[in-house]
Amino acid sequence: MQRTLSIIKPDGVKKNIIGEIISRFEKNGLRIAAIKKVFLSKEDAKRFYIVHKERPFYDSLTDFMSEGPIIVMVLEGEDAIIKNRDIMGATNPANALPGTIRRDFAQDVERNIVHGSDSPETAKTEIAFFFSELEIL
Ligand code: UDP
Ligand code: MG
């Protein structure tokens, strides 16, 4: 059993496809162990994406992530990290496989609907950013 952090970004919440996205996770054997809707400030978004602080897209990305509410979830299941990344599709929707969330719904490389942790280490720190142990069931 593995846990990973999933985010439905402001574009996904605005498109009203929360249920559609969650349904894809469930159909692929992932379980929602924790879930809530939050609204990140620009400063919160900068802290969450601190690993990208030197990248040219950092300022624009953190504006985007703080423009509206997001859904944060802990997904749980066998190989949850890679399974979630497979369901999401490639960062740039132009490169994402048919049937992935990003291919089906993303506008461009920035506004790409979902976030998913990329390793066990980042999953641990990203889950702890949003949830206490008591909230993960
Ligand atoms: N991003 C962007 N431009 C890029 C690469 C990434 O705006 O050239 C944004 C995009 O929203 C992406 C996030 O920054 O999801 C984090 O980038 P990362 O490379 O970690 O992609 P991910 O792990 O989300 O696929
Ligand atoms: Mg990433």
Keywords, separated by commas or semicolons:
single chain, 137 residues, alpha+beta, 4-stranded antiparallel β-sheet, 4 strands, 19% strand, binds uridine-5'-diphosphate, binds magnesium ion
* Attached small molecules: uridine-5'-diphosphate, magnesium ion
Largest sheet: number of strands, sense, barrel closure: 4 strands, antiparallel
The chain-level structural class is alpha+beta
Total number of strands: 4
Strand content: 15-25%
Topology order in helix (H) and strand (E) letters: EHHEHHEHHEH
Shape: globular
Strand order of the largest sheet: 2-3-1-4
- Cα(first) to Cα(last) distance is 13 Å
Unreliable spans are none
Counted by DSSP, the helix tally is 7
Instruction: Give the proportion of residues in helices.
Output: 40-55%
Average pLDDT = 98
The value of Rg in angstroms is 14 Å
Describe the structure.
This protein has 137 residues and is of the alpha+beta class. The chain has seven helices and four strands. The protein has a four-stranded antiparallel β-sheet with strand order 2-3-1-4. Helix 3 packs across helix 4 (58-65). The longest helix is centred in the last third of the chain and has 11 residues, at 120-130. It is globular. The two termini are 13 Å apart. It binds uridine-5'-diphosphate (UDP) and magnesium ion. The site of uridine-5'-diphosphate has 9 residues, from loops. Uridine-5'-diphosphate binds at residues 52, 57, 61, 91, 109-110, 112, 115, 118.
